[in-house]
Design a protein that fits this description.
Length: 370
């Protein structure tokens, strides 16, 4: 497993994200399948993954990991978890609950979660939360303190300049390098000497397969590489990337990712140029940059599975009728949207969800033949 030095300690460059663990059944709040998820964690541990990321708001994730981790030597792996002020403003109670859930007496990498707006910055910087967590760091209950951000560059810089953070987590991949100014965010953190942990390296699975034509172009260059592995190889060219998180929900995914990081062949300059060409083509084909994070779902009064609708919308734009068939299988579908806008206010990508719902509902209306 490819590792990188972090203050004299090797940490695996591939990190295990635990937001998309396999579940029993489908739908909102489906419980984690402890057996299947446990097999994935066991495989990760056995194959050298040492960084495990979760969060207070990832349904059941911390509690599940708290049942698995005691099987392993605590000194051999790192736990990363997060506090989100909007989920529970009582940061002291949340931290104590997280330690109990995770069955540990310290957190290796602790993050202030989901920096997106001026309000979220204030909820951390003006409430005493940062000072409290710095006190916990002094007590050894937190080893490294950082933040995760979907914020525009000026807000990220404001957060980064508050004090000397140990690390920061941002959405970074070859598509968002330009599309979401990930380049500017990465460079701002690097300039300040803040190591980067990457989330959404394959953009919620979107970069695991692009289009048939683009996939074929990349396969022609490296037949043995998976399409997803191009994204990881691209990130390994960035010196300030410490850990690359992947939310692996199947054994096939973790096996492919481990194989990539076990035998990491970096991109050549020619490979990087080809990938940039592929990204340009794919960028032009994308209609909605949804990553499937599901932040939009909890407050939807109609309980619409919004990421599935967004995925179907992109399929409509990419392959027409098949996408329409996928839309028709959703219940509730876009026609159920009441346009309240709650989803849009929670979207890290700034997607105009109600507008898209209206467009889709109109597309799905039966048309009279002329």
């Amino acid at each position: 497993m490819l590792v990188k030095d972090y203050h004299g300690e090797p940490i695996s460059r591939l990190g295990m994200g635990n937001m998309r663990l396999p579940t029993v059944g489908t739908g909102f709040g489906a419980p984690i399948d402890y057996e299947k998820a446990g097999e994935i964690i066991d495989y990760a541990m056995k194959h050298g993954i040492t960084y495990f990321d979760t969060a207070y708001i990832y349904a059941g994730s911390e509690a599940f990991l708290g049942t698995v981790f005691p099987k392993y030597d605590r000194s051999k792996f790192k736990i990363a978890t997060k506090y989100m002020a909007s989920a529970n403003p009582d940061y002291k109670a949340v931290f104590e609950e997280q330690l109990k859930r995770l069955n540990t007496d310290y957190i290796d990498f602790y993050l202030l979660h989901g920096i997106m707006t001026e309000e979220t910055v204030k909820s951390y910087l003006e409430t005493g939360a940062v000072e409290y967590f710095m006190e916990q760091k002094e007590k050894g209950r937190i080893k490294n303190l950082g933040f995760s951000s979907h914020a525009p560059l000026p807000l990220l810089e404001k957060m980064a300049d508050h004090h000397k953070w140990d690390f920061a987590q941002i959405q970074l991949n070859y598509l968002d390098w330009i599309m979401q100014d990930a380049k500017g965010q990465y460079e701002a953190l690097t300039k300040r000497g803040i190591p980067v942990v990457v989330m959404e390296p394959v953009r919620g699975g979107r970069l695991a397969s692009l289009t048939p034509e683009i996939d074929a172009m990349l396969k022609a260059a490296h037949p043995d590489w998976s399409i997803a592995s191009w994204a990881f190889r691209w990130l390994c060219r960035l010196d300030n990337v410490q850990v690359i998180l992947s939310g692996m929900s199947t054994m096939e995914q973790i096996e492919d990712n481990v194989a990539t990081f076990d035998n990491m062949e970096p991109l050549s300059d020619a490979d990087a140029a080809l990938l940039e060409q592929a990204a340009d083509q794919f960028r032009n084909s994308i209609s909605v940059p949804c990553t499937g994070c599901r932040y939009c779902c909890d407050d939807c009064p109609m309980q619409i599975d919004i990421p599935k609708v967004m995925a179907a919308y992109n399929r409509v734009k990419l392959d027409g009728m098949m996408g329409m068939m996928a839309l028709g299988q959703l219940n509730p579908g876009p026609a159920a949207c009441v346009g309240c806008g709650s989803c849009q206010s929670h979207c890290p990508q700034g997607i105009q969800v109600p507008k898209i719902m209206t467009e889709l509902a109109d597309m799905m209306k039966p048309r009279k033949r002329p």
